[in-house]
Amino acid sequence: MTDGTDAARQRDVALRDVVLRLLEDAGPTGTATIVQAGHPALRAVAVPYDGQLAADELAALVALMRRTMHAAPGVGLAAPQLGLPVALAVLEDAGLGDSEAAAAREHAPLSFRVLVNPRYTPVDGERVSFYEGCLSVTGYQAVVARARRVHLVGYDETARPLDEVVTGWSARIVQHETDHLGGTLYVDRAELRSLAASNELGYRWASEPRPEGAAKALRFPLEP
């Protein structure tokens, strides 16, 4: 029989082995496969990152996650989406420019950043509803009501503490990716009557500044 310390050590060694295999398979410029809904890693609670990787290995993993996110393309990617049950995520969003949708969604650019062991709590009770998609649930999108402002805590990849309030679309990305680390997919929080294929009609619904036309046509309540 092994004690908890031995079990944790074995878990950490196994995690590092999987990371090293991913890095070897991808090479210095390649990407990784994004696992899809139904993969157990997407429903597991990620283990906290606690130095399981050497500094150069962590940097290589972050770079791989960033390349994979860009290639997808997406604005966020969590480690479980690569089959890695560890609490890491990368975010980056170019924004929507000066448009009606950008203003309605508070969709400003988000510079590249890494979240390590992140947690969030709503700042207040204000919630906003917009269409979301997910790189691990390809082909569909749905409306999700989320907190407009969240208090984010955790660390970055250099172990610098994070303690900040994030607003608007950036807050939505933070919530979406942090949820992945707890085994939650956006469809768990979605208004399922809003579910739409990522086709011409679905693109029209998702392109609305607010999904008011979709709510009327598909007959779902729109919060707030």
From TrEMBL:
Molecular function (Gene Ontology), one example: peptide deformylase activity
Alphabetized InterPro entries for the sequence: Peptide_deformylase, Peptide_deformylase_sf
One Pfam family it belongs to: Pep_deformylase
EC number: 3.5.1.88
GO biological process per UniProt: translation
Active site, per annotation: 177
Names of the cofactor(s): Fe(2+)
Binding site for Fe cation: 134, 176, 180
Parts forming coiled coils: none
Record field: catalytic activity: N-terminal N-formyl-L-methionyl-[peptide] + H2O = N-terminal L-methionyl-[peptide] + formate
Bound cofactor: record note: Binds 1 Fe(2+) ion.
Entry keyword set: Hydrolase, Iron, Metal-binding, Protein biosynthesis
Superkingdom of source: Bacteria
Similarity comment: Belongs to the polypeptide deformylase family.
Function of the molecule: Removes the formyl group from the N-terminal Met of newly synthesized proteins. Requires at least a dipeptide for an efficient rate of reaction. N-terminal L-methionine is a prerequisite for activity but the enzyme has broad specificity at other positions.
Protein name (database record): Peptide deformylase
Source organism (scientific name): Cellulomonas chitinilytica
